Amino acid sequence: MVSIIKSRMLEEMKLQSGQDPACCYQCAKCSAACPVTAAMDLLPHQVIRYLQLGLEVELLESRTPWICASCFTCAARCPRDLDLARMMEGVRLAILRRREGNMFGPANLSPEQLAKLPQQALVSGFRKYNK
Amino acid sequence: MRYRYFPGCTLKGQAKKMEETTMAAAGALGIELQELPDWQCCGAVFPLYEDELITLLSPVRTLAAAEGDPLVSLCAACHHVLKRAQELMQRNEDARSKVTDFLEVDYNGGGRVLHFLEVLRDDLGFDKLAEMVKKPLTGRKMAAYYGCLLLRPAKVMQFDNPENPTIMEDFLKALGAEVVKTPYRTECCGAYLSVTEENVARDTSSRILDSARQVGAEGLITACPLCYYNLENCAGENDGKPVKIFYFSELLAEALGLTVEAGSAKERTGEVLP
């Protein structure tokens, strides 16, 4: 319980995403619905479990929040009406707001990629990985 | 029928085809799409934290610029961002006053925010559309691909049933096509992961194409330039008969008997070439 009380990320998350991980009863429908679990190290329902336990460090090091593409399928299927996409955004922002500089930018892409990718992909990608 | 029209960045670039074919079709259907002056990119993704107000400036500016008239977009992402920004403006008074004060605009969350498919379904009507079809797509096996952004979150988007939508199939039927359904029609294509995690986006898009092929679709329609890109990117890779990717508007223009030349929309809007 100590870690839950201490978790600043969790408090920020409840306030800014309007989601309370404590509501989740771990049915894992989100993980069943998610189309990109194959590339994740933590399954979506495990992310919520880690949030419940206040395991901040593990979450901040996880690959999962960066694989989440905000497709909102998890939220559509959640029987507790939780929006996990907002919580994933919370983990990403906890990292982005604490670090200096951006995580990903045009410099990370080849000229071929920049020419080929549609504007929408570039704007979305840069927005999700940058402050 | 007159609407304010928000194109968004990709419609003037990679997805020009969607704008050109829509403009031609809208003209034939008596739908006037008046492009907003000095519009700017919507931001492409909706900010999921309530204190991310800076990213709301652009969509709210667009919503205010419509001056209460119905606002139409074609890109699924633009529509998603505008619709959710509007809902946030209606729901969160504090965010609304901060954003509108900063922008120095008067916006109270009003006005209809529509995707062009909704205009066809709700304002024109698919029955009427079917009557106006000149060259029906008879015998063409087409599948609808909805993706995420038009459908979810359903409470805000109010576009269609998020698990069992029908609007795109009804649209295809109105054009005279033979509709086939793929179980992956509401699954994510991988979205912007094609920028950072290309293999993940390839997996998701391949699954969608495979399922379309299995149900015998010769083509797949989408309303999202990013879905189009991701699907198109994998379209040639899989075994079997290739599935062709279309913007919904390409088939609309075709069924209305229109031939759309590349570059035609630009001339119509009188935009000055650089």
Provide the residue-averaged pLDDT of chain A: 91
H/E series of chain B, N to C? EHEHEHHEHHEHHEHHEHEHH
Tell me, what's the shape of chain B? globular
Helix percent band of chain A: 55-70%
Strand order of the largest sheet of chain B: 2-1-3-4
Largest binding interface between chains: A-B, 38 and 47 residues
Major sheet attributes of chain B: 4 strands, parallel
Secondary-structure-derived class of chain B: alpha/beta
Structural category of chain A is: mainly alpha
| Unreliable stretches of chain A | 1-5
Look at the structure and give the mean pLDDT of chain B: 94
Provide the low-confidence segments of chain B as ranges.
266-274
Distance between the termini of chain B: 32 Å
Tally of strands of chain B: 8
What is the helix tally of chain B?
A: 13
- Total beta strand runs of chain A: 0
**What is the gyration radius of chain A calculated from CA atoms?**
15 Å
Cα-atom Rg of chain B, whole angstroms?
18 Å
Oligomer: heterodimer
Strand content of chain B: 5-15%
Task: Summarize the topology.
The complex is a heterodimer of chains A (131) and B (274).
Chain A: H1 2-6, H2 8-17, H3 29-33, H4 44-53, H5 56-61, H6 64-67, H7 73-77, H8 84-98, H9 111-116, H10 119-129
Chain B: E1 2-5, H1 16-29, E2 32-35, H2 54-65, E3 71-73, H3 76-91, H4 93-103, E4 113-115, H5 116-124, H6 126-132, E5 141-144, H7 154-157, H8 167-174, E6 178-180, H9 193-196, H10 198-214, E7 219-222, H11 225-235, E8 244-247, H12 248-255, H13 264-269
Parallel strand pairs in B: 1-2, 1-3, 3-4, 5-6, 5-7, 7-8
Helix pairs in contact in B: 1-12, 2-3, 2-4, 5-6, 6-8, 10-11
